[in-house]
Amino acid sequence: MVRVFVLASLAALAPFAIDTYLPAFHVMTNDLETTPHAIQQSLTFYLLPYALMTLFHGAISDAIGRIDTIKIGLGIFIVGSLTAAFATNIEILWLGRILQGIGGGAGNVVARAMVRDLFQGPEAQRVMATIQMLFGIAPAIAPMIGGLLLGIHWHSIFIFLAIYASISLFAAIKYLPETMPQSKRVSFSFSAVTHRYKTIFSDKEFLLLVIALGANFSGFFLYVLSSPIFIVDHLGLSSAQFAYLFIPTVSGMIFGSYLSKKSAGNLSHKKTIKVAYIWMGLVAILNVLFCTFFETNLVINIGFVALYNIGMSLAMPVLSIAALDRFEKIRGTASSGQAFIQMLLSTVSAGLIVPFLWFSPLGLSIGMLGFFMLSILVISQTKSLS
Predict the structure, then answer these.
(1) Closest Cα partner for 334 from 345, 326, 346?
(2) Sorting pLDDT into bands at 50, 70 and 90, what band is 277?
(3) How many distinct structural domains can be found in the chain?
(4) Which of 17, 25, 94, 369 has its CA 20 to 30 A from that of 33?
């Protein structure tokens, strides 16, 4: 069980890096003498290198081993966190976020590959769901931690991230086995990596599964990315009240993960996905209808996001494992490809979609429905979920 907690802590590094500093947006805008849009773009400066580097973390771990990849990635993340912690202008903050993005994905990608290295069959789905439950706690507590640290100074938020990454790194070295022995490692070269990704991304089933997974997540994640506007401007809450959004929505994620864990071995993958998609579709449509015809309501608007997350988290372990199982010999690279697609959709949301949708709760609800429609379009073409 200790291994599961360590793997979850590695996977949770990404949401901590995103959500912990969200309550500080307004303060950072004034302190760094910049604009809200420039602070918002610090999310993009994190997400874009994060997405790009996920293409390499898994391939590197297939070549040099899982643990050494974690060491390198988290080491870079720690340097980036300290750079952001001592930023005196927006450009230094951007630099710190870029370094965080370069290293931060190693924990998530390698942890996902190690789950499939260590566990098989229904047990793998149960472990993945357990990690997802623990992983889901991070977005709930991260803004609360950020709000508390904001009472000291916003710089302390990034010092906290450096400390968290250091503890996770120590735990990984101490408690996790090396699941990629020397005999199974593959070469790391540009041509070798290119060939492996050509193999992965030319697999239609893999692409359909990871796009569906990423689109489902983005339906929720656009609310995270727009939370400074959604919470403060639309819902009328303060920067210290981010928990009003994150606790209910993450509770939905945890409950959905619990259902996925219980369904492993009892329901077929096809049945689980069907239930999850019917639920997500119903919630997404009701969300748009409510936002169209009724005034903003704190409980209801947040409630729809929380309910959507139940279906999203029910489907996520099934989709993730089905995608990884397409390439058993290069799971690290497959995990990278999976994470890349997910973060690419999130990056597009942060830089392009969210600024056009955060004008009102209706805009965000349309975004959720749009991502769901993309997901159901691609998942309806899959053949491997049975």
Answers:
(1) 326
(2) very high
(3) 1
(4) 17
pLDDT of residue 371: 92
Q: Give the pLDDT confidence of 94-105 residue by residue, as tens digits.
A: 999 999 999 988
Confidence at residue 287, expressed as pLDDT on a 0 to 100 scale: 96
Range of lowest pLDDT (79-93, 118-132, 158-172, 363-377): 118-132
Asked if residue 386 belongs to a domain, the reply is: no
Mean pLDDT confidence for 250-261: 86
Q: Which residue has the tokens 């997405």?
A: 51
Per DSSP, helices labelled H in the chain are 2-11, 13-19, 25-31, 36-64, 66-85, 90-118, 121-150, 155-175, 190-201, 204-225, 227-229, 243-263, 269-293, 298-324, 331-348, 354-357, 361-379
Phi, psi of 379, deg, nearest 5: -70, -25
182, part of any domain: no
Residue 213 is assigned to a structural domain of this protein: yes
What CA–CA distances, in Å, run from 133 to 55, 138, 142, 253, 267? 25, 10, 15, 7, 19
Domain, as residue range, for 113: 2-174+188-379
124-167, pLDDT tens digit by residue? 767 777 776 666 677 667 878 888 888 888 999 999 999 999 99
CB 20 within 8 A of CB 161: yes
Asked whether the beta carbons of 80 and 103 are under 8 A apart, the reply is: yes
Looking at residue 112, which CATH number applies to its domain?
A: 1.20.1250.20
Q: Does residue 10 contact residue 169 with C-beta atoms inside 8 Å? A: no
What is the torsional sign of CA 178, 179, 181, 185?
A: negative
Residue 91 lies in a domain: yes
